[in-house]
Design brief:
alpha+beta; 21% helix; two-stranded antiparallel ribbon
């Protein structure tokens, strides 16, 4: 079995076919990189989306907490991650206050 390789220049990505939209990954992301978007084609009417990939700090909390193995974080050897900023922390707080949905939605 080979290891999964990250898409080029991508810090975090999802396999939507495995995601059940539980929003756990969004809840644990300290940088506000993830959010839920409305998606009428899914059972729960929403789906995970990567809203700020450049803010990913590579903490792996989303990948480790996903019960469906539907989200992946690049290896630190393959990608240079951002530092956690106050702006990212504030975005994460606002996403949580918005029921984990994309801001402005």
């Amino acid at each position: 079995m080979s290891l999964m390789k990250a898409p080029e220049n991508t810090p975090v990505w999802t396999d939507e076919s495995r995601c059940k939209a539980c929003d756990i990954c969004v809840a644990v992301c300290p940088a506000g990189v993830l959010a839920m978007r409305y998606d009428p084609h899914t059972i729960l009417g929403q789906m995970i989306t990567v809203v700020e990939p450049d803010a990913c700090i590579g903490c792996n909390e989303c990948e480790l907490s996903c019960p469906d193995f539907a989200i992946f974080v690049a290896d630190k050897k393959e990608y240079k991650f951002a530092k956690l900023t106050e702006q990212a922390k504030e975005r994460a707080k606002k996403i949580a206050e918005n029921n984990y949905m994309v801001l402005g939605a």
